[in-house]
Structure formats: structure tokens, C-alpha cells
Amino acid sequence: MIWLNGAIISETEARIDPFDRGFTLGDGLFETARAYDGRPFRLEDHLARMQRAAEELEIPLPLDMPGVADAVGALLQANRLEGGDAAIRITLSRGSGPRGYNPPHDPKPTLLIAAAPYTPPVELCSAAFVEVRRNEGSPTSRMKTLGALDNVLATIEAEERGAEEAILCHNAGNVACSARANLFAVIAGRLVTPPVAEGVLPGIARRVVLEIAATLHLGAEERALLPDELRQAEEILLTNSLFEIRSVGRLDGGEIAGRALGARLRAEYRAMTRLG
Amino acid sequence: MIWLNGAIISETEARIDPFDRGFTLGDGLFETARAYDGRPFRLEDHLARMQRAAEELEIPLPLDMPGVADAVGALLQANRLEGGDAAIRITLSRGSGPRGYNPPHDPKPTLLIAAAPYTPPVELCSAAFVEVRRNEGSPTSRMKTLGALDNVLATIEAEERGAEEAILCHNAGNVACSARANLFAVIAGRLVTPPVAEGVLPGIARRVVLEIAATLHLGAEERALLPDELRQAEEILLTNSLFEIRSVGRLDGGEIAGRALGARLRAEYRAMTRLG
């Protein structure tokens, strides 16, 4: 079952209009959150991020944020996911419109929520730098937009290089993120992550990790990161709201040996998710 | 009426699956072509461009190119557009897939064709540089992908600056194109247009203009173009397959006085469309 514009219906019954600008122009946003034991984690942060981006894009929200949270809860129940781990996807588009880029003056946005059981991948992964660049000069690189084809291409490219995760630089050459996650390097024992201004999504898991680092006085810095610094990092971590924290064991075939800080952050992160 | 995956049906009857990757990830392509007196102009060039990009994205085509051309013809007839000018939009997505960026191994692409009567805007327009950058470091900037939100944002930004057309630079600072068109500057009497490598769509109307320029020995050069060169250009032309050639009369409020080359190219272009 999915939640579409106010109703919980079966997937086969659900219809997106062929002139929905989400389909025709990628004109919309999405959020991916995880539920633990049926409880969405940091849902309010996801919804606040969507709301901020929707304001910037001038897409009105068809529902207030508590309303969306209620819809998520109802959908988890309808899909019998109250007791388990689930991936929740919330999709917002500007809705249908006539041909052309100019938004309709009176948009009727589409809001779609889907939820499915979720099992995280193993904690250790391989990664590769890819050719596709992150567009640091567009505000959309700091939003989770429906135009995710660069991430798809990056993922295909990484797979062709025999790696699971794709590391993207921006046009000026600094490291930005992975195709599906934010990125942390451990350099001289300290966490380093590229700032959002480098064309990086302000990830919710990224924020949780920064909060944990602050609480534990681990020392974490948001600063520009060069590809060579990443290659020589003691440890590399990828973070997103679904798989939480993955450790990169190999980058472009070279070994990244460190695991300790990742393990510590992972334990703290998991404790938070189970607390609630 | 629209053409969807082999059938001509009414818009209200047509259904895009909520898990179509065109909707969820902008994972697909589109083409916009114009029909004159019911005859699509350079449709083979549009379809060849779509085919090249689809191969690069590893999206299989559900129909061969003559099949798509036949479908376009049938749709024009169904919409009683055989005798008039029409805008044709062909949309190809990778089809439905499970959550995540990895493409499904056995994609079932969605192919959608729409056609509507078309009336071009006036030939003269105003333009403004916008903040949004073109992503010169991604292959998708050289394709007409479903992820067009940067163009939507650029169009909104231009409108806020009181201009109709948005001029985009890439991250390294050169001029790339407008949100909905390719761009030519007339400098010292010669046509200059940014090369495709600068994050520019290889436009079909752009190619027609380059062909006309070659035939008439007008002198046309594909080279990097600086914003200041554009501001000081004698003439600025925007080209796309729908409105053909628009002359920019004002850029960021400053007058661009020249019209002669635009008028000459427009006459040649129109002669070709009525012949062809």
C-alpha cells in the first residue's frame, strides 16, 4: 500500500499523471527516512529539510508537517511495519502543469509516501572516485531533488569499477560526497566532512554524526577536502539515514585500514535510534 | 490524446506508475520537436540524440526510431494536428524499479508522446544572467534529461529579475546556454557559440543554425564565451526547436542593439522548416 494525496491505496491503483512535473521535469523533492521498530527516526528533521527546500523552490506543501507524520504512521500500520525496520520515502512534486519550465501559478502538488521493510547492507564497503561531478553552483545540489540521474550515473560508474559506493568531486575538484551518502574522513585522528557549500546535501545522518562527535568531544571539522587527502585518510565513513554509517575498506582498490572511529560512532548512532 | 507505451489514449486515462524512475529519480530523457503543417521538423535528429543518450544511460529503447516516428504521426492525426503547427514532446524513462539508484537489471522503459498546438512567442526577448550554474562536469548537462529542475529554478530567477530568458554560466564561469535554448553571440560580425563540452545541450536548432552559417559562409565558431563578451556582443540569439531563433534585446537591462544576423538566420531557418 502507498499513501497518495491523502488516501492509502494499493500501488497498482495509484496513478501519477503523465503531465506531473515530477515526471516530466524532476520538479520536486524527496526524503528517505528509516523507522526502527515502527518508529521513524528524526522524521521531523527530514520534514523540516523538505519544507525549507520546498519554500526555496516555491512548491506549496499540501499538508502541514504533523499531517505528513500522521500519514507516515498510518502507512506503516497499513503495511504492517509497526514492529519492524522500514525504509520510508516521501516524494513531493509540483504536480501537473502545462509544457515548459515556468511553474503553474496555482500548483496542485503531488505528495506520495511509500514504506517497505528495510535490511541494511554490511557495514564495510568498497568505493571509487567517479567522473561525474557534483554541481556546487546550483542550490539543487543542497536539496534532495527528484532529478537524481547524476547519482544514478555515478552508481553505474562505480559498479563498472567494481565498487559499491561512488565518490563524487565537484567541478572545482574538491571531494563532495558519495552518490547516496555524506562522507567523513578521519585525518590525524579528527573527523573531516565537506561543508554543505561544496555542493553537498545537508544529510540528517551527517548531522547526527556531527552531534555525536560534539557530545563526545571527538573533534569534527567541516572543511574543503582534497581527493588526495581522502586517499590518505586513516578512515573513511559514509553516512545516510538508511544504512547509518558504512566504513570504506577500499578506495580505488587501495586499502583504508581504520575502523575504530566508525565502530564507535556506529554504536552511539544505534543507541540513539533505539532510544528514539 | 497521448501516446503511452504503444497505445493512443486520453490523458485522464493515462497512468504513470508511482515507482516509475522517471518520477522518483528523473531517470530518463525527453525531446521537444516542432511540427510545421503537421510535419515534424528534424525528428530523426531528435530521435538520434535521444538514442545516443539512452545508450550512454543504458536505458533500452522500447521501440526502434521509425516506430517512434510512426507513433508521432499517428498522435498528430489523433489530435487533429495534421494541418497545423504543433509542439511534440517525447519522454523516455527507465520505467519502474525498486528503491535506490541502482538501475533494475531488466528495465521496462516508459515511452510517452504528447502533442499540442504551438504558437511561438514574439521574436524579441529580454534575458538576465542567473546564479544557478550549469554542471559542466556531468554528462547529463549534454543530454535532455528529466531532471530539469535547474532550468526551472533559472527560469524563476530570470522572471524575478524581470527577464523572460535565463542565461546560465557553468561553474568555471564561462557562458553556457539559456535555460531553454542554446545561445549565439555575434562578435566582430561573427557567430560564436559555446561548445558542447562547456556543459551545453547539443541542440537541434543550434545545429541547424550552424549548418545555415556554414552554407552562407557567415563564419561561426564554437568556443568558450565569457560573460563580459556576451554583455558587449553586437547581437545575441537564442535557439531552440520550438521558437527557432529569438533575438535578445536586453541583457540584464542593458540594450543589445543588433538584429540583422538574427533576421537573416531566421528567414533561412523558416525556409528550411517549410521545405523540410
Protein architecture, described:
The structure is a homodimer of 276-residue chains. Chain A is an alpha+beta fold and 276 residues long. Chain A is built from seven helices and 15 strands. The first copy, chain A, has helices at 21-25, 43-57, 65-78, 149-160, 204-215, 227-231, 260-275; strands at residues 2-4, 7-9, 28-36, 39-40, 86-93, 110-117, 124-129, 165-169, 175-178, 182-187, 190-193, 220-222, 235-240, 244-251, 254-255. In chain A, strands 7, 8, 9, 10, 11, 12, 13, 14 and 15 form a nine-stranded mixed sheet that branches. A six-stranded antiparallel sheet of chain A has the order 2-1-6-5-3-4. Chain A starts with a strand and ends with a helix.
Give the SSE map.
The structure is a homodimer of 276-residue chains.
Chain A: E1 2-4, E2 7-9, H1 21-25, E3 28-36, E4 39-40, H2 43-57, H3 65-78, E5 86-93, E6 110-117, E7 124-129, H4 149-160, E8 165-169, E9 175-178, E10 182-187, E11 190-193, H5 204-215, E12 220-222, H6 227-231, E13 235-240, E14 244-251, E15 254-255, H7 260-275
Parallel strand pairs in A: 7-8, 7-14, 11-12
Antiparallel strand pairs in A: 1-2, 1-6, 3-4, 3-5, 5-6, 8-9, 10-11, 10-13, 13-14, 14-15
